[in-house]
Amino acid sequence: MTKIITCVDGSAITKNVTEAAIWASKKLNKPISFVHTLEKAQQTNIGNYSGSIGIGAHSSLLSEMVALDEQRCKVSLKMADELLNSVSEHAKSAGIINFELIKRHSDLLDTVIDFKDDARLIVIGQNGTGHSNSLAVLGSHIETLIRNATQPILLVPETFKQPTSFMIAYDGRETADKALQQVIDGGLLHGLHCHLVSIKNNEEDLEEKFINAQYKLTSMGFKVSASFLEGNIFNSLMQYKEQNNVELIVMGAFGHSKLRQFFVGSNTLKMLENSDVPVVILK
């Protein structure tokens, strides 16, 4: 796991995704792979109108459509090259010299899976092409990617600045302890002020586990602000984030068949859709 796999698509969010990848690369001392996928265009179903317009006319229209598809492909390739060149200049200006540019004719998920053995972290925009300026709508591939990727994911919103603090919700379950250990071992969040937040639930000995989690973080050098709260999970976490100017959220991901995370039910998806700060999704 040696690379920061960074998905760029030319949307308005691409600049912020690039900035996030640069930040992660410097924190982890890992090279960046900027990846742009050219997904296969859906074949146009023109139907069989030869009985209505004549075989000759049908053939002529089909030829025109083929020519248009070829032209569209050429334009897409040229735009991809310009996008990757722009991203490379951005990286160089930030002092990044160890990076690569990858152009693939593939589905995004297939591409990420192909790189899974090399990926230390996946960086991707919250909203992709076609969803710009729509904060509460995840990009079309994001949920599928989160469910299927095996690596941590850094989900970037429409604005990005290098974070100085992060919030992690702790519910006392095994998945929360696993995520906590990933934070400690990972390196990406070292040096950031940690807000450890727990929402009262039915987990046995939650307060004791919460105190142990705080101790574990502080003993590893993290500056920790710990808060044990009551109330609705989603609302409480979002309110805490706003009141404490949290600049990044850490959360567990849902699995293949159901939501499995620190939060309950649909709270993970709510946090992803409504967060205006970067989100690190741990697997």
Give an overview of the whole structure.
- The protein is of the alpha/beta class and 283 residues long.
- The protein has 2 domains: 3-40 and 77-156, Rossmann fold (3-Layer(aba) Sandwich), CATH 3.40.50.620; 165-277, Rossmann fold, CATH 3.40.50.
- The chain is 42% helix and 19% strand.
- The protein contains 9 helices and 10 strands.
- The chain has a 10-stranded mixed sheet with strand order 3-2-1-4-5-10-9-6-7-8, sandwiched between helices.
- The radius of gyration is 22 Å and the shape is elongated.
Q: Quick recap of the structure?
A:
The protein has 283 residues and is an alpha/beta fold. The chain has helices at 14-28, 50-53, 55-93, 108-114, 142-148, 174-186, 206-219, 233-243, 267-274, and strands spanning 3-7, 32-37, 99-104, 119-125, 153-156, 165-169, 193-199, 224-229, 249-252, 279-282.
